[in-house]
Write a structure and sequence with these properties.
The chain has a two-stranded antiparallel ribbon. By secondary structure, it is an all-alpha fold. It has ten helices and two strands.
Amino acid sequence: MTRSSPQAPNRPFAALRVRVLTGVAYGAALLGVVVFAGPLGFALLLSILGVLAVSEFFRLTRRERRPVPEFCGQAAVAACPLAAAADGVFGIVTVLGVLVIAALTWHVAYGNLRTADTAVVVVGATYVGGSLAHLVLVRSLEDGVALVIAVLASVWAGDIAAYFAGSTIGTRRLAPRISPHKTWEGFVAGAAATVGVWVAVPAISGVALDAWWLAIIGACVAVSALIGDLFESRVKREAGVKDSGGLLPGHGGMLDRIDSLIPASIVAYHLLAAGPMS
């Protein structure tokens, strides 16, 4: 009589478990810094996350090894959140202005550089550092801690809802040439979850924005998060890779983790700053 072999592990479930555990650890750490570390500590954390993400972006977009001033872009990304904490929007603009001058100078000094090489550095630093720095600006608003948590929670809720709705009931492909697994059903579910988080903000904080404006913020954050996700998906497809890196088990790289948050931070800040108070 032969002994039956043990049942093979459920690989999709195991992968989902790893993804969930990594996401929970990442989210708890980020929220802990938002609540307890203060403005400077939060800005420093964004600097670190930004440098990790922009380094992955440079690896994806640069295939030929020429003396491109990537360190200038990484330095600008690190400086943007700190400059935002010190001097608001003017601080971000100053850092990005210095980056442009430094990149142009480097481009003139090295004759074997191509314009696309220098452009990638400037675009990458602006895309990651200039965008993430808007979370520091959100934190500087009245009830800023609650608003930063709302930005993070709404993006995460939208991502989770889109994932489960898309994988269970999704049939209509949203952008098959860029991200084949994304569906319109997933987007609608994710957008509803994002709007729901924003509409609930006054109930759990002292934020005094009109409910209709919070719903608009939620809708705009949902659309911008989708654009950020699709943009990074296209960059990866052009590079011929599945993930931007392997830093976060179950998620890929840091850029994979914050791709939706990058444009959502910009949209959230400007709509919050312009919003009518109830």
